[in-house]
Amino acid sequence: MKKINKKKIFFVSITFLITLCLLFYFIFSYYSTPIQPRTIHKKNKKNTSYPTVSFVAVGDNIIHENVYQYALKQGNDTTYNFKPCYQNIKKYISDHDLAYINQETLIAGDSYGIKGYPNFNSPESLIDDLQDTGFNMVSSATNHSMDLGKNALISSAHIWKQHSDILFSGLYENQEDRQTIRVIEKNGIRFSLLAYTFGVNETTNYKSIQKQLKTYPYILGQLNKEQIKEDVNNAKAQSDVVIVAVHWGKEGHSELSDLQQEYAHYFADLGVDVVIGNHPHLIQPIEKINHTLVIYSLGNFLSTMKDVYNQLEGMVCFDFVKKEDEISIENIQYVPLVNHYNDNVVTIYSLKEYTSTLASQHSILKDQADIIKEFKNYVKQMISNDDIDIEM
């Protein structure tokens, strides 16, 4: 019996010692391991529990003469090939369910002649190349919409309508077309796109253009509160999310104009979900007014404009997440871009990938010391929201 008791005592002692050692080990490991700060990488954060649609938007696609001449060279002087212009940022665009761009210049048909500034007409093949890049939402109500008059605008509206995979808004063939809300569905969420401009350019035949717009007001989306209210109400009845593209502000000014602030609050009061501004050719702030995300200006996208800060551009990405009957905007990310060109190339880079070597080859930036650092500081100053991640 004594031997048995000794064995029991031995095994109990061993078990106790092992348990004690393990206890000390876990306590020591816990308190000796520093607590790592919590980092949220919004770009990679995906909510798979709810229907989600990823969205990306860029600024003004302006086909200056140097742009289409470069595209012609890329097409061996027989066709216009714009794909190389967008190849460096295609990975960003094509990765999203919905990709928006503002087509600043008219695409009225090659029969009108391909033209640059001031009265633009861009090649029809541009549409295919935009689609190849991944764009499927396009607005084109701009100050250049009437560059070639009413018939050219209507022709452009007709050409875009042939591309049924692209949700196009801003130019219209007739009254019935104007009253048709543009809607697209992705992952069980329905989106509508409305587009407006403050007006058109005062060209040499401005009086004639104004007369045409007065006679046929339905061909172009213009800022008119009564009409906008009707459009938004119709869009709400047909979609879950209402996106408005608006041509506003002052060219070359980063400060918000009175018109921008007035209409931003008006869109918010109407319950628009997202407002995407264009026209200033410079990046401007982003803010939330009530539940409306207002992106005042993303600057240019593709162009050969000549001011230093015309080369700094914005791309914004986020997710629409549907939870029961509510849709929220989550994971907002801002990706600064650089419009890069010289005599041999016209293309776009993310600021993160842009190098001092490339800057030294840029027609405009080559003489700007520390321009990359300057651009980064400017972006931080302009996009100062705590809930927006900036990738640069």
Automatic annotation (TrEMBL):
Keywords: Membrane, Transmembrane, Transmembrane helix. The chain crosses the membrane at residues 9-31. SMART domains: PGA_cap. Residues 54-305 form the Capsule synthesis protein CapA domain. The keyword Transmembrane applies. Pfam families: PGA_cap. SUPFAM superfamilies: Metallo-dependent phosphatases (SSF56300). The keyword Transmembrane helix applies. Belongs to the CapA family. This is CapA family protein.
